[in-house]
From TrEMBL:
Keyword field contains Lyase: yes
Source organism: Streptomyces endocoffeicus
Gene3D superfamilies: Aldolase class I
Protein name per UniProt: Dihydrodipicolinate synthase family protein
Family: Belongs to the DapA family.
InterPro entries noted in UniProt: Aldolase_TIM (IPR013785), DapA-like (IPR002220)
Length: 300
């Protein structure tokens, strides 16, 4: 198969939509569609329903399927749909097959949630998913610094549809080495730690980055992408400075407020409720005002 269109879509801003809830705590379908249209109209070319910013681990099986279907329907070919899958291997395979049936283009495989991860077992896990959906692109989400480039290279040799890696280890030097050991050109390397890490990861091989901030300000994220593609690192760092406080708030206490801050910004803009599910929690009042002030300064 020709995976080049999917590779092109990954080498971009890969948006991670939030999952809004209604007053009863259910997925707010209308608000979700509105948020997706805003991303698409803003120029986003790849979206990941059921990502971490979408509260993947707080959603039920039925809700994850719903979000997948809503995303494919709303995207309607305007953007590539990269569905987050995970949990045990059988559940991930089932979710990948559902994504295929719904009309998605790719699956992003969440970091395996297990206290004991062998490198060969990591390969086995991803191979099971990739072989179940050979028509879809497969993108491992790598947060484990112990997974070596050689393991990723083996996955690529055995699974042609493993086309990209979302790399989210807080170490640009480690990323540079892993990407080269795995195959810098074999995979599309997506900086999985969003805008604050995008310039450093771009400098050593990334060609795309994920974003939760893009839910709030698509133009800001795309401005950074444009600067990076042009090799304008001073320009990229101007965006970096603009968003630094917002992203620092999300990263506090090991990213405890990753989703909360984004939803608070969207609530301040009247786009969805601020509600998040446990173990996340809404911001206290003083921080809400700070988030609203930051967003107001972006003129979105």
């Amino acid at each position: 198969m020709d995976y080049s269109p999917l590779r092109t879509a990954l080498a971009d801003v890969v948006a991670i939509p939030v999952t809004p809830y209604d007053a009863e705590g259910a997925v707010d379908r209308a608000a979700y569609r509105t948020l997706l249209r805003r991303l698409l109209d803003g120029g986003v070319k790849a979206v990941t329903p059921n990502g971490n910013t979408g509260e993947f681990y707080a959603l039920t099986l039925e809700e994850r399927r719903l979000v997948t279907e809503l995303t494919v329907e709303e995207a309607a070919g305007r953007a590539a749909v990269l569905v987050g899958v995970g949990h045990d291997a059988a559940t991930a395979v089932e979710a990948a097959r559902h994504a295929r049936a719904a009309g998605a283009d790719m699956v992003m495989v969440h970091q395996p949630v297990h206290p004991y991860v062998a490198q060969d077992g990591w390969i086995d896990y991803h191979r099971a998913i990739a072989e179940a959906v050979p028509e879809l692109g497969v993108v491992p989400y790598l947060r484990n610094p112990l997974i070596e480039g050689a393991a990723i290279a083996r996955l690529g040799e055995e699974c042609p549809n493993a086309i990209g890696v979302k790399y989210a280890v807080h170490d640009a030097t480690r990323f540079a080495a892993v990407a080269r050991d795995a195959g810098l050109d074999r995979f599309v390397w997506v900086a999985g730690l969003a805008e604050l890490y995008a310039p450093s990861y771009w400098a050593v091989g990334a060609t795309g980055f994920t974003s939760g901030l893009v839910n709030v300000a698509p133009n800001v994220s795309l401005n950074m992408l444009g600067a990076l593609r042009a090799g304008d690192y001073p320009g990229a760092m101007k965006v970096w400075e603009q968003i630094r406080r917002f992203e620092d708030l999300r990263a506090e206490r090991q990213s405890a407020n990753n989703v909360t801050v984004v939803k608070e910004a969207l609530a301040a803009m009247g786009l969805c409720r601020r509600d998040v599910r446990a173990p996340s929690r809404p911001l206290p009042e003083p921080r809400r005002a700070e988030v609203a002030a930051i967003v107001e300064g972006w003129s979105v």
